[in-house]
Amino acid sequence: MSKTVIKIENLSKIYRLGEVGTGTLSHDLNRWVRMNILGQDDPYAKVGHVNDRTQKAQKGELVAALRDINLEVKEGEVLGIIGKNGAGKSTLLKLLSRVTSPTTGSIKVKGRMASLLEVGTGFHPEMTGRENIYMNGTIMGMRKWEIERKLDEIVEFAGVAKYLDTPTKRYSSGMTVRLGFAIAAHLEPEILVVDEVLAVGDAEFQKKAIGKMQDVSTNDGRTVLFVSHNMASIETLCNKGIMLRNGIVTNEGEIKKVINTYLETAAELKPSLYYTKEKAPGNDFAKLLSVEVVNSQDIITDRYLIDEPIRIKIKYINNKAQNKNTAIIHVLDAADNTLFASNEFNSPQWDNMSGYGERTAECIIPPNFLAEGKYKVLVAIGHFNPNMVHCIKKDAIGFNITDSFSGNTVRKNVGGNWPGLVRPMLKWNISNQLL
Fold it and tell me: Which GO terms describe its molecular function (predicted)?
């Protein structure tokens, strides 16, 4: 049975907004005596306040960036930490890495920890890349010969050999992240902590970094804590997850279920969008009036079965007769992956469209095409010759698809839901030779 390497109990972190002091000398003295001599809690800490960043702050208000966190992480687990901006993810990692101290609660860590929380974490800008590698290794408790044994591997992974003896203050943010991650991942920590900082790197490096973290956890049995807004990376790398909301753990468990919960709690999109002519987005060439998603009975709804068509209707104004515009859609999944794009240019009627005034364009997504899930639609009005975009509306509408349990469209199998972003009904030819 795997042993626990991180144990968090009743962890809270309180921050004061605005001025640090209580506002009066007597209150400051009262707080100091209560906390430092009598061993009592801060009498002015309003621990019950939730860290809702959408609310206007009051002068001197105390908020809980984290509140009553209880968590155990086992050896070899890869824990994904997800949540909206301001949910407390980075604060939790800073507490684990001892960058800051908790207000209440305790953190117990068994093993050597390497952290990559921000661009340049642990780097001295006046020191060269080589010197920073030795400094970081020494801080982690490694001997000089241990660091030297890993030096070439770190430099090769980071791809900064040419600049190894250059002060890191002259590095770009991407180079700094590459070297920082290479140090953190290769100096053999028992626990690797990585924040969203990897997003600064290019696509090639991100892929390499994910692969390295998989190797560290799978082959070396080390523990990884990973914060990211990229749900695809989280799902690929992690086997367990927690979701934070306003500093509180609201969901914990198998990573796919946690991701689904997170995506479901995101703002729901409506199946229709309307503008008045006066407030319609666009320019002198074209303006968007409305977007609707309707079923085969022409009813606006955001719920569809997998075996029924989905019709997206777009109404817009052509303001100039000589301007041959086209409606454009991008269909995205809940994780913001673009599945496909289409436009009026694909219609056989498009060549005959001319003049100005209102136009309604309809795109039909065929049945048995998209898999179960939540989808959103980007809508734009543009022109191909020359290439111009007159207006664009991200997350214009949304809809949901569920499986059908009738006829031959049932897609459930013994192992659960079928994988994939699309699930078309493909044609199969079968020949059978009976014995």
Answer: ABC-type transporter activity; ATP binding; ATP hydrolysis activity
Residue matched to tokens 């407030």 = 279
Cβ-count burial of 68 within 10 angstroms (0-12 exposed, 13-18 middle, 19+ buried)?
middle
Beta bridge partners of 360: 315
The dihedral region occupied by 399, where left means phi > 0, alpha psi between -120 and 50, and beta the remainder, is beta
CB-based contacts of 395: which residues, under 8 Å, 6+ apart? Answer: 269, 376, 377, 378
Question: Which residue type does 145 have?
Answer: W
Q: Whole-angstrom Cα distance, residue 372 to residue 427? A: 20
**Lowest-pLDDT range, 93-107, 141-155, 204-218, 244-258?**
204-218
Report pLDDT digits (tens) over 85-118: 888 888 998 898 888 888 889 999 998 888 877 7
pLDDT tens for 170-214 read: 998 888 888 888 888 887 788 888 887 777 667 788 888 888 888
Q: Where in the chain is the domain with CATH 3.40.50.300?
A: 4-111+190-265
Is the pTM of the predicted complex or chain greater than 0.85? no
Cα–Cα distance measured from residue 132 to residue 169, given in angstroms and rounded to the nearest whole number = 11
CB burial class (10 A; 0-12, 13-18, 19+) of residue 329?
buried
Query: 3-state SS string over 278-297?
Result: CCCCECCCEEEEEEEEECCC
Q: Which CATH superfamily groups domain 4-111+190-265?
A: P-loop containing nucleotide triphosphate hydrolases (3.40.50.300)
Which option is the CATH number for 272-408: 2.20.25.110, 3.20.20.70, 3.40.50.620, 2.70.50.60?
Answer: 2.70.50.60
Alpha-carbon distance of 7 to 274, in angstroms, equals 51
Six-digit token string for 142: 């490694």
Q: Which of 33, 52, 53, 55 is nearest to 42 (CA)?
A: 33
Residue 200 contacts by C-beta under 8 Å, 6 or more apart in sequence? 119, 173, 174, 177
Local confidence band at 76 (pLDDT 50, 70, 90 cut-offs) = confident
Start-end of CATH 2.70.50.60 domains in the chain:
272-408
Q: How many whole angstroms separate alpha carbon 219 and alpha carbon 74?
A: 16
3 state DSSP class of 245:
strand
